[in-house]
Amino acid sequence: MSYMLPHLTNGWQVDQAILAEEERIVVIRFGHDWDPDCMKMDETLFKVSDKIKNFAVTYLVDITKVPDFNKMYELYDPCTVMFFFRNKHMMIDLGTGNNNKLNWPMEDEQEFIDIVETVYRGARKGRGLVVSPKDYSTKYRY
């Protein structure tokens, strides 16, 4: 479903997408369109994009074509989702120890909507770090 979502093809477009949006969260998926994990995440992003359009906008960035942010945001995972609000990187405590990004594919639409909504509400209140509505630490997976 990646072809249904807007792609940013260079560093300038990524910067402008983050800078230009004043009222909504900017959700950027960094990865590859051909990666199986990214395909799962893209499917979720596409399904929820209409539901979250009032408070979030979604973009896709190919980390091979746009390597500008790989070191800055430590984009070493096959699929990474990051959140920005008013030119500020929004951190989210998912219980995984990495508060900068979501680095696994989410297939549950409502779960992802809840995360984006939590980030939006925290961002509107001026918080730079928000706590996820669900704890994703490994102790709850078994």
Description:
- It contains three helices and six strands, in the order βαβαβββαβ.
- The chain has 142 residues and is an alpha/beta fold.
- A six-stranded mixed beta sheet has the order 1-3-2-4-5-6.
- It is globular, with a radius of gyration of 14 Å.
- The mean pLDDT is 90.
Attribute tags:
single chain, globular, 6-stranded mixed beta sheet, 23% strand, alpha/beta
Concise description?
With 142 residues, the chain is of the alpha/beta class. The chain contains three helices and six strands; from the N terminus they run E-H-E-H-E-E-E-H-E.
Overall 3D geometry? globular
The amount of helix comes to 25-40%
What is the average per-residue confidence, as pLDDT, rounded to a whole number? 90
Assess the beta-strand content as a share of residues: 15-25%
Reported for the largest beta sheet, the result is: 6 strands, mixed
As laid out across the biggest beta sheet, the strand order is 1-3-2-4-5-6
Instruction: Please report the distance between the alpha carbons of the first and last residues.
Output: 31 Å
Radius of gyration: 14 Å
Structural class: alpha/beta
Order of helices and strands: EHEHEEEHE
Low-confidence stretches: none
Question: What is the count of DSSP helices, taking H or I runs of 4+ residues?
Answer: 3
